[in-house]
Amino acid sequence: MEMTPELVLDRVRAAGGRLKLEGLDEASLAGWRRAAKVAKLRLLRAGPQRLRTWSSPGGMSLLLVEVDRQGVESPALAPPETPTRQWVPPPHPRPRTQEFLGRIVPVPSTARRPHRIVEDLIEALNYPERMIYQHRPYLMPNKRRPVQRIRQIWQAILTEAEFRGYETLFRHNRRDHYDSGQLILRIDHDEFPIRLDGERGQPLQLTIREVHPTRRRGYDTWTDTPDHPLHEQLGEVFTHIERWADLLIERREADRRRELQRMRERERRETEARRQFAEDHRRRTIQARIGERQFADDARAYAAALLAVVDDLQPDRADKVRAWADWILRHADQVDSRLNREGMPKTPKPERDDLRPYLPPGHWY
To answer: What is the mean pLDDT of the chain?
Structure first.
């Protein structure tokens, strides 16, 4: 059946103003597109309705909308769409210190499902040597690292971090030829870089490449010894990192509380300064109105004195004096606050320098 513009509009209206076509062959899709284009042009010439089309591989979507006099479109006869869910950022993992205090981190002898970051960490171990001896690789020393042991420890750390709900990522700056990569353990907003290295004749060492906030220098290091293997110290490592994260979170919350208190104190001072500014403005208004009242009384007395002697003047000069006295009386009535009955004056918005006399020294406004 040949598709016509009238048939397209009938199908869209029958579908409630919104029609979605899927699984069309090339010929059918081309026919729908041609008929929809003609229908779109016809509706554009006259009528309050407009046709909108979207094409996709093997499908097509048609929407019938109405246009008001202002040109605003609204779906015609179309059911309301399901509102889009607002994106909520995932919560940052919090340290679980007390929950896993004293936990022994399991270290399997073989990893059936090796973590993807483990191989990246192993490959980055000899990255500095590869960069230094890239043109003469036969001179690159063989440090005989315990790769299998390192892989086992990394796998245990990554598995435990995932079990505790912490985020892990691999960080390696390839522009730095001396960077051998490190594992980042992220708790809340804090990152803890961990490095694991060891050479022939040297014990395996795990180092947190970040200075503890209670010290000025020095990294925390755990060494693999026969009496105290490194895999038995992983629980202590995680507890140390979690307490570290607790300390950083507590400090941030204390800073946030101090900042909130500082903002409240600042708002209190500015509110008090605005109140004093408003009172001074009202006081000046009272003084001005009292002065206007006294001026109005003096002006009336002056006009009365002029009118008292106007009969003794010549006619042409007497007319000028009467006009002057009448103007004085009218002006006195205009400026007299008792006749105007003005209420509470409106306080103007203070400028930057208006509140400075009411604020303490050093308070920026």
So the answer is: 87
